[in-house]
Write a structure and sequence with these properties.
The chain is of the alpha+beta class. It is built from eleven helices and twelve strands. It has two domains: 127 residues, 60s Ribosomal Protein L30, Chain: A (2-Layer Sandwich), CATH 3.30.1330; 158 residues, Alpha-Beta Complex (Phosphoribosyl-aminoimidazole Synthetase, Chain A, domain 2). Helix 4 runs parallel beside helix 5. It is globular.
Length: 333
């Protein structure tokens, strides 16, 4: 595979960005006949609505993507619910919100109690890790639309308006703290599956069966980040590293740059994908998290205390770089 391996695998980030822009152009023109409650956070990980003088409610929605195809091929659905919870709540905490609830949405050709029960196991486990409730959801049997299973959901959280972490206070010299990912998480699976198509799920060259590696659940960072926000640390930005890789950092503030001088260790699964697919290092970092699941931007004075706190939740956490004055630039050195 060449430079645009992800596009050739069937996913174009450029088309996705253009599609979002087309939607937003329509949605921002909505007239409700009353003042808008939307708190201005364009391009951020979650949306916030003002519901009181200093009270906001944060919303986010996401799915598990084509990781669900792997679960189907292996006939193992007991952890995919963790991924759904993680993908949603990890976005909510990026604005400083405390996630409180999630609703799941299952699309399938024909619902079966066995599979739905396994999905429920993961949803429960993920909810307990994140400290959220799942008060309801929806199962839609739409055989004319899908031929397998699809899992999505929406989460809500609470945040004081004067405590929103928007990224607007980030400045050169601030420190980037990275928390490790558990592996692929729930992004880039269209490319990963294409590259790994001829490798048996039982292949153990990575030290355990490949099927176990690619179904490893997405890490939930909620409790660690909420504890950091409740500490004395000056938290200036929070980034969930998902699709688009390191470029997610630019969603925090494009008036500064970000330099990764000491990246976290890259899990072996990424090396295998790069090798078998002939994918360049630069594209790998644009598609996958490459071992970096979440980034906290804090003032330099608070770096040591923040690392100690976060490490107690996620071993391997450490300073990985700093904020620069190179506006809009995300660099690895």
């Amino acid at each position: 595979m060449t430079q645009d391996a992800y596009t050739k695998a069937g996913v174009s980030q450029a088309d996705a960005d253009a599609s979002v822009a087309a939607l937003v152009a329509c949605l921002t023109a909505i007239e409700t006949g009353k003042p808008s409650r939307v708190w201005p956070l364009p391009g951020h990980y979650a949306s916030v609505l003002r519901i009181g003088e200093n009270q906001g409610i944060a919303f986010g929605t996401d799915g598990v993507g084509t990781k669900m195809v792997v679960a189907e091929e292996l006939g193992r659905f007991e952890t995919i619910g963790i991924d759904l919870v993680a993908m949603n709540v990890n976005d909510l905490i990026c604005v400083g919100a405390e996630p409180i609830a999630l609703l799941d949405f299952i699309l399938c050709r024909e619902a079966t109690p066995e599979i739905c029960g396994q999905i429920g196991e993961g949803l429960r486990a993920g909810a307990e890790q994140a400290g959220v409730e799942i008060p309801g959801g929806e199962i839609a049997q739409v055989g004319d639309v899908v031929h397998g299973w699809e899992l999505g959901g929406s989460a809500i959280g609470l945040v004081a308006l004067d405590q929103i972490v928007a990224g607007d206070r980030i400045e050169p010299g601030d420190v980037l703290i990275g928390m490790p990912s558990s592996g692929l998480h729930s992004n880039g699976y269209t490319l990963a599956r294409k590259v790994l198509a001829d490798v048996p799920w039982e292949d153990d060259r990575l030290g355990r069966p490949l099927g176990d590696v690619v179904l490893e659940p997405t890490t939930v960072y909620v409790r660690a980040v909420l504890e950091l926000l409740a500490s004395d640390a000056d938290v200036r930005g929070l980034a969930h590293i998902t699709g688009d890789g390191l470029n997610n950092l630019s969603r925090l503030s494009d008036s500064v740059g970000y330099e990764l001088s000491d990246p976290l260790a890259v899990p072996p699964i990424f090396g295998l994908i790069s090798e078998l697919g002939g994918i360049s290092d630069s594209e790998m970092h644009e598609v996958f998290n490459m071992g970096l699941g979440f980034v906290c931007v804090v003032s330099a004075d608070d770096a040591d205390a923040a690392v100690e706190l976060l490490t107690s939740h996620h071993p391997g956490t450490r300073v990985i770089g700093a904020v620069t004055d190179q506006a809009g630039e995300v660099n690895r050195v």
